[in-house]
Amino acid sequence: MGIIQQQTIKGTIYSYLGVLIGVISINVLQPHALTTEQVGLTGMLLTSSALFAKFATLGFSGTSRYFPYFRDNEAKHNGYLFLYSAVSFVGILIFIGIAYYFKDDIISAKSQKGTLFNQYYWYLIPLIIFSVYFDVFDLYARVLYNAISGRILREFTKRLFILMAILLVYFKFISFGVFMVLWLLANIVPTVILAGRLVINKEFFFSPNLKFLDKDMRRKLTSISLLGILTGSSPLIVDNIDKYVINQKFGLGETGVYTIAVYFATVIALPARSLYSIATTVISESFKSGDFKNIKMVYEKSCINQLIASLFLLVAIWANVNNIFSFLPASYLTGKYVVLYIGIGYLIDSATGINGVILNASKYYKYDGYFYLLLIGVTVGGNLLLIPLLGIAGAAVAAGISLLSFNLFRYIFIYKVFKMQPFTIKNLYALFVGIAVYFLSVYLIPQGKNYIIDSIIRTSFITLLYWTIIYYLKVSDDINLLLRGYIIKLKNKA
Asked: pTM of the prediction?
């Protein structure tokens, strides 16, 4: 898989370093350093700013599928960065206006005018601006085959800064107000660093080329941007609508509990996210050159490799779920099954590979917009129906059902149109291995009194058994190659 495999591995390594920092800061220290309402505040600020920022790009991120036509280093990529930045600036102005005029509706004025969200509401403005331009610079770097820089800054650097801020408030060196200022800066700094990196690499081409934008190109960019407003924002709507409904029904406290629980589950999605970042550019180039054989190969490998990686993480997390919640205050226990249901949803999403990348890079990209409409409908309906019945676990169930139906429609469409079917008997082997290893870890290892020691023993058992079976069954050539490399290195050191 070449560049895809290389950058996916690097991206995943940094993502998990970020996860380690995130677990320490968000899941271990933050629940003890902050109240559930304060945790809910940071979650709501990130949720709101992310939604505004994604809409503020006015769907232009979808135009990356046409970047192969812009690509020309001598011509400074025909003004693509300038065009994307200018469109986003207009979007920022629009959504800052919306944030101002609809403040009470966003906060939920009837019940929360005196809450922390109201007090820190205007943090949304810098968060929106810097979130938008981080997305702009990150996408620009990715289409130039650098999918790593943005991921390191978002998953690792930002979380490192946040960890420092949480440590300061945890040991009572600073007040919550000062913590919020540092937290805001932690969300701003990655954008500045990413822009600086583009300048240093002499890739920051910020000059227009209006001559390149002929009538046909303008039509294409406009069409895909309009669709991109839907497809680009839909994942964020789906990922964040649950927090809004929970906040409306139960307040910032339960939102804080849900935020912490979801963070554990998002670990399962990290290998797939690393893959999507670089696969988008590679698949777009393959469609341009008509290399359907390469598309099929990447599709098949993405499904089996992401299933193996994500299933291992789900098994390890759920087998240790009691130990995980032993770290947290008792008030967080209601989030236990959120981890399972969201985790299953992310597993399904990962196991179906790059179906979305293929659709969005093809001439059938509009159909993905229809699937996103379905996803939004199922998610919103599921949240409104299940949250009153099941509490915050209902939001997680709705998310799992939504991701299942969404990926099923994508799979069927690609199979019918492109005649590509990525699954083999090896996918079933991987699934059976994961289920078997989970039950063995639960029934062969009794729950220990010391949750730290129990976690180490249980996770070591799962890791050794799972990857040994995967290796000897030869479920994935790529993973076997990677594991053989590690084995050779260990033998050489010994």
From this structure: 0.76
Cβ density class 278-298: b for 16+ within 10 Å, e for less = bbbbbbbbbbeeeeeebbbeb
Amino acid identity of 187?
N
Distance between CA atoms of residues 431 and 332, nearest Å: 30
Q: Which of 139, 167, 156, 161 is closest to 70 using CA atoms?
A: 139
Q: What angle do CA 149, 189, 59 make, to 5 degrees?
A: 65
pLDDT of residue 358: 92
**Residue pair 317/336 in contact by the 8 Å Cβ criterion:** no
- Name the amino acid, one letter, at 453: I
In the predicted structure, residue 403 carries a pLDDT above the cut 80: yes
d(CA 34, CA 459): 29
Answer yes or no: is 458 within a domain: no
CA distance 191 to 183: 14
Give CA–CA dist 129/167, Å, rounded.
Answer: 27
The Cα–Cα gap between 178 and 157 comes to: 20
Tally of domains in the chain: 1
State CA 151 to chain mean position distance. 10
- Spatial separation of the C-alpha atoms in residues 75 and 213, rounded to whole Å: 13
Q: Judge whether 397 lies within some domain.
A: yes
Spatial distance between the Cα atoms of 274 and 268, rounded to a whole number of angstroms: 12
Burial of 460 (0-12, 13-18, 19+ CB in 10 A): exposed
**Domain for residue 438, yes or no?**
no
Q: In this structure, is residue 348 part of a structural domain?
A: yes
Which of 460, 455, 362, 358 lies closest to 410 in space, CA to CA?
Answer: 358
Torsional class of 108: left (φ above 0), alpha (ψ -120 to 50), beta (otherwise): left
Q: From residue 370, give the alpha-carbon distance in Å to each of 55, 229, 363, 367, 409.
A: 18, 12, 14, 5, 10
Structure confidence at residue 139 (pLDDT): 84
Q: What is the DSSP secondary structure assignment for residue 76, as one 8-state letter?
A: G
At residue 453, the pLDDT reads: 93
Residue 335 host element (H or E)? none
pLDDT at 369 over 90: no
Which whole-number Å values give the CA distances from 56 to 94, 96, 132, 220, in the listed order? 7, 9, 7, 19
C-alpha span between 120 and 179 (Å, rounded): 12
Q: In 362-450, which residue ranges form alpha helices assigned H by DSSP? A: 365-390, 392-418, 425-444
What domain range includes position 255?
3-423
Task: Return d(Cα 275, Cα 297) in angstroms, integer.
Answer: 14
At a CB cut-off of 8 Å and minimum separation 6, what does 264 contact? 23, 27, 317, 324, 339, 343
Give residue-wise pLDDT tens across range 162-203.
Answer: 999 999 999 999 999 999 999 999 999 999 999 998 888 887
In the numeric block, which tokens belong to residue 470? 């995967």
